[in-house]
Amino acid sequence: MKLVSTFSSQAEDNNKSIEKKNVILIALHPNEFPFIGESHGISIISGYLKSKFDDINVYLYDQQLDSLDEILKAIKHYKPSILGVAVKMKTFDQMQILYERIGREIPKEQRPYIVLGNSIPHFNGETILSKYFNDVFIGLGEGEIIMNDLYNYIHKKQSFESIRNIMYIREGRIYSTKRSYLSGAEILLPDRSRTAEFYKKGGEVYIEASRGCAYCGCKICECRDFLGSKTFSKKWRPRTTYLTLLDMRNLMELGVKNITFADEDFLGFDDSGIDRAIRLAKAIISNNININFRINARVKSIYNENDTAEMRIKRELAFQALKKSGLVKIFLGLESGSLTQLKRYGKGFEFDEFKNAYQILNKLDIDYELGFILMDPLMSFTEFKENLKFIKQYNIIPKVSSIYKELRIQSGNKLYLSQVKTVEIKKKIQIVSDLDFYNQEYNIITYADDRITFINNIMKQYDNISYKIYYLFRIITQYSENSSKKDNIGQSAFFEIIGSIKNLEFDFLEELMKLIEIHGLNIMKGKELLNLFETKKRFIFASILNNKLYSKYCVLYPTINKELTDYIELSESFTQFEHTNIKKVEEQKKETMNR
Length: 595
Known about the structure:
single chain, 595 residues, alpha/beta, Rossmann fold, TIM Barrel, 7-stranded mixed β-sheet, 5-stranded parallel β-sheet
């Protein structure tokens, strides 16, 4: 397959005489998270609308780059007919501020139709309409469909009743319209008008080769409802190879050298998915597209125990071809090293399949990162020990994304939540809170096993004051332009530091395990360990503080340096406080014994 279109010809306006109408799309961003990269959702919706309508202008705004004042100024200036807002996790407070300011600063007759999309509105539409904003539309699932239909309706090309994928309230009653899904051929070229801006700032750039998940069975994932479908053929929808190639060519022309496929499941269905991956890899090579890319894959995509010998060979050939065409890393959703925990997560693969997948990737010398959720509220101490043993047995500390990670039970995780509720009834305890609407989580109050509660309480303190630093380091080592290259001083240092932090975290967990086995739930000894390992962690991070050398290799280094300064000050205060507390406890014990 050869490309015949170019980025410039795609961007060309063939009908300049048409009076264009304005649409603004906004991606909100949580204050607590650092800069990440391009918001793919609004980019793909904008590209879709521009491809469908000649009489439209679409303007993209993102809180990672644009202040709320700048966004309000744009709304006043462009007077859009539709305002689409991506309300991602932990951004509902930002949405409330935006909505309040629109109501205060923009006259009623000039206000646009407001559409709220992404995960929070999708899973909480009724609550938003009945308790917060009763004059907005809620977008369900893919945003391209509702924006297309609403634009047609506003301009008298479609009836209101025929608008798909929306929820709205009228006279106190909530209505939902027909749910539709795009076909793979309808996943069009995204709007890349701000891509270079994100990339130059060190942010990640995303692309799609498919949408949905062929498995769609994980009990800890929202994809099954948000992007998936109950209809088997619509669970996983591959994009046309031509459009994927053209998108990659456009990115290359913008100077982008590294991308991540946002696909939940890059390989998809067995035979057809593998054949498609081989075709795509060959087409990338034949069209001289030189971009490094990362993908998400399931364990069964690499090794499936039900495969024939012929199919196993084909899978390896597919990954060889992908590597040759630019694949530099695979994100693999392992999630646990305990069989009973894996079943609770609903991951749908066997340990023997992981073992074989692990051997294949090592044999092919393809880098990979393992998603791992160590702690969930139903975890037993036996499962905890099984996980640590598994990590050590396979020597995967460098490959695990985070050694300590607590499962976030979000509003869309209904299947996992039902398991928690069953245990709560059986044990007559409250494990999780009601839904924290602003954070979109069911906060964990306690664990079913007191020993896991003890470990998690200590690890949370260890993790809370440094998570921003760790998050930034993960962005650099996962997504940066040099994330697959460790041959320069800066990049080597970042990889070495995050490796040291992971090893330290694993050692801490092992020490906590031993402490419980020997001393039980001894809070004072737990705090002593926390103090010790926090001091060790601070020493590791401090090794690159205020070192201008690293700024040459990482555009995010100024941000890292600021966060490091704040962290070290906070960490020193924390360990001093804990040390004082431990000393007080020891003194009180001595006084009691003397009496």
